[in-house]
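Hey, resending since the last one bounced:
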Amino acid sequence: MGRYFGTDGFRGEANVDLTVEHAYQVGRFLGWYYGQKKKEERCRIVIGKDTRRSSYMFEYSLVAGLTASGADVFLLHVTTTPSVSHVIRTEDFDCGIMISASHNPYYDNGIKIMNGNGEKLEESVIQEIEQYLDRKMGKLPLATRENIGRTQDFAAGRNRYIGYLISIATRSFKGKRVGLDCANGSASAVAKSVFDALGAETYVINNEPNGLNINLNCGSTHIEGLQRFVRENHLDVGFAYDGDADRCLAVDENGEVVDGDRILYICGKYMKEQGILRNNKIVTTVMSNLGLYQALDREGIGYDKTAVGDKYVYENMSQTGNCLGGEQSGHIIFSKYATTGDGILTSLKIMEVMLEKKETLSKLASEVTILPQVLKNVRVKDKTAAQEDADVQKEAAAVEAELGNRGRLLLRPSGTEPLIRVMVEAEDTEICGQYIEKIVRVLEEKGHLV
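The structure tokens again:
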């Protein structure tokens, strides 16, 4: 990770950590970089955004920078991150940008950049962008006269993506009562259209974005609202998305949460039965629950573990040919259909398993016994200093020794925020909390807390 870009783009509070000047400079660099690679053709870059108030401001700043460097820009407007990735691949774009801070509050925003394959941008190019932002490169030439880029409306690209999602479904959803929590974000422009077209009786909440309510007590990070909604309306299933709809968590007919680990198991077992689980493996991260691994072992399904971040999950999949991977948080990647996590696609694949096996989601999920897992996000002054503090590491080793094979501790810095994430897995929640407080106490004593 660099000074500006973390594991999921350049993210921070709008006009504090991430400014319009940053966005303009990123646009200037990308327009120049892809333009000089094309030489005789004008480069084409597509942009999508979520519903934050600041997304419009950053869209215009990026457009100014890109066109000033000679790029033609195509605007998808409010759409999902996976739709940008899909459009890049299918419409022959050189690069794509998604303006979103995902699950963060409305006052944060981010710039996610994807290459011509719809994948997260290569680290080598990100390093060059950072050098340009730090003025360690020379001035970039400005396009003039007929070489100045132009901007075009490209809402049709989002509509084609909706059609693509509909085409993936194997059965009609007729007769199924489905709840969708759109987090007042990107899914508001896509999800209901897909489920309606497939014949579901669709019930939607949190699909009235106003620029300030994205992720506010809703969506996959606040799923309790969808749990109540499913129970009160006697729905068959519910799906909750985050701000840019690249993740999905599910709620069964009883209002119980089915997280990313259980989704991986449900889809992985089904794909194995269908003979389409490549290498007989799924890809997980180090945050996945021990209960998932126990269930996979029982079913004879292998697994790889990566660092936290769908970027690392996809890297493993592209290198090994594994076709299913994801995170506990609901970033699930089906490599046959997408190069990134796609929340709406994930919900369609869960529906496929339910319909083909004629089972309720609660029955499918019951095969995984999840160990209690408690995560505490601790805001710190310096992530690296806090993580590497000798006393913190000593206390972490002591906790791990006490847990033994009955649980585990994971201590890691956030890739996008000034946080240390302390996760403990053990036989009950109270024990998890006790061990977490031991670590937090040392962080506080050593002066790392904000």
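The radius of gyration is 22 Å.

Sorry for the duplicate.
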